[in-house]
Write the structure tokens for this entry.
Amino acid sequence: MKERIITGDACVAEGAQWLATIEPRFADVLPALSPLPLRLKDDGFGVLLHVILGQQVSVASAAAVWAKLQAADLHTEAAMAATTPEILREHGVSRQKARYAIGLAQARIDYAGLRAMDNTTVIKTLCAVPGIGPWTAEVYAMFSLGRADVFAPGDLAMQEAAKVMFALPARPSARELAVMAERWSPWRSVAARIFWAYYADIKQRDGIL
């Protein structure tokens, strides 16, 4: 079956309306969260490299490293595949991330080919590359490929949002949240947007953001 692709705000609105009809808790929170963010972005090497560089560091730190790589012409797939960890270290990239970045470039992922793959194959293909875990692969499928039925149950913000929204005694595990999300197919990516928007909302109300 061909995967449903989210191409614009109308798709997100359609998914949100469908989810509200099957899940009362979504119906309750959506009026305060609408319109949900589209969050679509480009696909390709640069997006995944950005994610790797941004792991476990601040947005400002990741941006600074990215600017250094751009200035040195090291941000393209070809340049990254030909460089060395030592050179990347000179531009502020940690030893582990240098290995991941070079490995990503040398993997020569067929980014155009990913667009034609089913969701499971996309995630499996990306996770085969060191430095890319399920969360990164799922988020790439959701926002760079526009997949409508991908979820990221390991995301801590979504787990916390689910705990509050569904009045759960504890934050659900990735497995527990994945099971909950099964009934939200074929719009699980929109359900994810609801959780992220709800998390931001409750944190603002709690004075954390």
Notes: The two ends are 41 Å apart (CA to CA). The chain has two domains: 9-39+149-205, 45-143. The domain at 45-143 is CATH 1.10.340.30 (Endonuclease III; domain 1).
